[in-house]
Amino acid sequence: MKRRTSENELLSLLSRRQDDEDFGNVVFLSGDIDHDSSRRIMLKLLRCEQEDEKEEIFFFINSPGGYIDDVFAIYDTMKAIRNPIYTICFGHAMSGAALLLAAGHRGERRIGSSSRAMIHEISICEFSGTHTDLEVESKEAKKLNDRFIALLAKEMEKDIKEIRGMVQGGEDHYFTAQQAKKAGLVDIVLGGRKLDGESS
Q1: Rounded Cα distance, 112 and 177, in Å
Q2: Separation of first and last alpha carbons in the chain
Q3: What is the DSSP letter of 169?
Q4: Among 6, 120, 131, 173, the one annotated catalytic
Q5: pLDDT band at 109 (very low <50, low <70, confident <90, very high)
Q6: Which one has a higher pLDDT value, 122 or 20?
Q7: Cβ-based burial of 55 (10 A; exposed 0-12, middle 13-18, buried ≥19)
Q8: CATH 3.90.226.10 fits 7-190, yes or no
Q9: Which of 2, 42, 43, 128 is the most buried (most CB within 10 A)?
């Protein structure tokens, strides 16, 4: 059984030059999740597996989320490769980025003590077209949202009804680092003991 990666080792990974070609087994998601960022991350994950399918991948996340199809593309790639993926949030992991954070290797999902996460029902771009088109798009949006909530429930080890309850009415549900750990989004809070007056 491999030992758990220390905080100092994680921080040393951040100090390297952030160049995907030379950055070994470290992957960054910084900013929106879109076609370009998802393609880059997918290719990097696949390249890491090709080079060594047993080596841990360190996936650093600081993202407000983005297009749900691109979120699912990264998620499916994470689950398809053999490497254990250690997810680390420094900053924020919102919406689809929260799903990617939770999708890391169980026991190795981390968040900085001042970082936060947020989940909500996914939103689709404005609909346009005929009445029939709108009905089709509405049904497709519901299926995507159901899929998103089901995956969150799986990764957080919660009942789907519980996750739906968190996001009902279209509200954003925010988590402090400690709350994210308690909810099952992450396993470890980095660097932080709970401060006096901070809610759990």
Answers
A1: 7
A2: 31
A3: G
A4: 120
A5: very high
A6: 122
A7: middle
A8: yes
A9: 42
Residue ranges covered by each domain of the chain: 7-190
CA torsion 183→188→190→192, rounded to 10°? 60
Query: Of 16-25, 63-72, 133-142, which one has max mean pLDDT?
Result: 63-72
Q: Go through the chain and tell me how many residues it has.
A: 200
Residue 14 · residue 24 · CB < 8 Å? no
Query: Over 50: is that where the pLDDT of 195 sits?
Result: no
Cβ-based burial of 159 (10 A; exposed 0-12, middle 13-18, buried ≥19): exposed
The single-letter code of the amino acid at 24 is G
- Confirm whether 95 is a catalytic residue: yes
Question: 68-80 and 131-156 helices cross at what angle (nearest 10)?
Answer: 40
Is residue 105 among the annotated active site residues? Answer: no
